[in-house]
């Protein structure tokens, strides 16, 4: 959000602000996925093979949902505005 405020305050065009917003969302979701991956790694280290398999299977829907969210966000942000 700080990037969005900076872009707005410095007079960037609407398209540039869209890119800043999209990049900010990508960075945020990357941090969330990184934290989830670290949590899964820690869980897998202590629970043996079946726990490793279960947590590995359980984490994939989160990555799929994140990719879908990025796709929808990109479509929403970069959709042409009606004139």
Q: How does this structure look, described?
A:
- With 83 residues, the protein is an all-alpha fold.
- It has one domain.
- It contains two helices and no strands.
- The chain has helices at 2-9, 14-78.
- Helix 1 (2-9) crosses helix 2.
- It is elongated and about 55 Å long.
- It starts with a helix and ends in a 5-residue tail after the last helix.
Summarize this entry quickly:
By secondary structure, the chain is mostly helical. 88% of the residues lie in helices and 0% in strands.
C-alpha geometry: elongated
Residue share in helix: over 70%
* Structure summary, number of beta strands: 0
* Biggest pleated-sheet summary: none
Share in β-strands: under 5%
First-last Cα distance: 26 Å
Tally of separate helices: 2
Q: Average pLDDT across residues?
A: 72
Question: Helices and strands: which structural class?
Answer: mainly alpha
Our count of domains comes out at 1
* Integer-rounded radius of gyration: 18 Å
Show unreliable segments.
none
Query: Helices and strands, in N-to-C order?
Result: HH
List the main descriptive attributes of the protein structure presented here.
83 residues; mainly alpha
Write the layout of secondary structure elements.
Layout: H1 2-9, H2 14-78
Helix pairs in contact: 1-2
């Amino acid at each position: 959000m700080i990037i969005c405020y900076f872009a707005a305050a410095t007079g960037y065009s609407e398209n540039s602000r869209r890119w800043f917003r999209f990049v900010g969302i990508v960075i945020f979701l990357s941090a969330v996925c990184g934290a989830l991956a670290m949590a899964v790694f820690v869980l897998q280290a202590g629970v043996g093979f079946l726990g490793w398999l279960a947590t590995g299977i359980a984490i994939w829907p989160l990555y799929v949902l994140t990719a879908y969210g990025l796709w929808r966000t990109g479509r929403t942000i970069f959709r042409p505005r009606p004139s």
